[in-house]
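Attaching the record inline, Q. Sequence:
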Amino acid sequence: MYGYELHHIRSAELIRRAEHQRLVREAVRGRRAARREAAERSAHGSAETESHTLRLRRHRPPRAA
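Structure, as predicted:
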């Protein structure tokens, strides 16, 4: 009887841990998706507002000491 109860306790604990890990993975996945969307929005918005980004930058020779 003792072994049977121990088995159920361990099984219930494993199920709780698995559920917790699933919730953590889901939260991380949601945060990553939100961060990706925000990055896409900011990249898309900044490309439209900054018109001078296409201008090539002039390379200058290094200064003498």
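DSSP finds one helix and no strands in the chain. The CA atoms of residues 39 and 54 lie 20 Å apart.

More tomorrow.
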